[in-house]
């Protein structure tokens, strides 16, 4: 018997006046998986998360979290932790006050794990939050998000303020603790290459619409870069799903989806070289399209390429 999804979204729309921030999106989030909610600035990521966590009312459509609507529902909300970049705390709070009050909100709170993370991130417990650096403030949010062990945890780019070493600590601790204490985690980030290996599923949103809803393993290797003389590249990509094309003098490169193993064997004979495309490059190409303009006409995605490859 299939387990019910942790989150179910059906026809969700959110309008602010005449502006449609989220446009009739539908998707499921399976329990105990790490999701990446990806997209450009203003794509609608934060608005979606705010509706999933009961902070915004939907204009239309339905949201179900653990089988119930989240708005003004304490049973649902006590199972959610939402950490964002601009996290706010009470005036005069010190770091230690945040950690001391966390058990009031999170029944799975692990104080020992939080203390370990404080050491890992070198956070000053007795300093007022308004006096800590941006990186230390980001670390406080990350510590709360990890040590809460909430069944549904959202990270809306709170780690942008961390330096490269601290971000790697976050990724390592997240994976280690997730392995021991599985829960549903949704990461919203622009640092796609950094989190690529963490993600099990990708939701890509652009201008309020879902462009991609696919298993991360299927996405890896689903597109290739074709490089060679412009005439050879043009001949090779005829009739294929071209996401992007560039030309410099007599040379050209193209990002193409859906190449089969036979296509890879034929590439050398066709006078072109094939290379891998990272998840970040793929997301960039999907949200800019062949001519640099985002595709918004329901065109094929990598799910179609996988089916045809």
Termini separation comes to: 30 Å
Annotated CATH architecture of the largest domain: 3-Layer(aba) Sandwich
Strand content: 25-35%
Unreliable stretches (pLDDT < 50, length at least 5) are 291-309
DSSP strand count: 13
Write out the CATH superfamily name of the largest domain: P-loop containing nucleotide triphosphate hydrolases
**CATH class of the largest domain, please?**
Alpha Beta
CATH fold name of the largest domain: Rossmann fold
Secondary-structure class? alpha/beta
Largest sheet: 6 strands, mixed
Shape: globular
How would you write the strand order of the largest sheet?
5-6-7-3-8-9
Query: So how many helices?
Result: 12
State the order of secondary-structure elements, H for helix, E for strand: EEEHEHEHHHEHEHEEHEHEEHEHH
The domain tally reads: 2
Oligomeric state of the chains?
single chain
Overall average pLDDT: 89
Computed CA radius of gyration, to the nearest angstrom: 22 Å
How helical, in percent, are the residues?
Answer: 25-40%
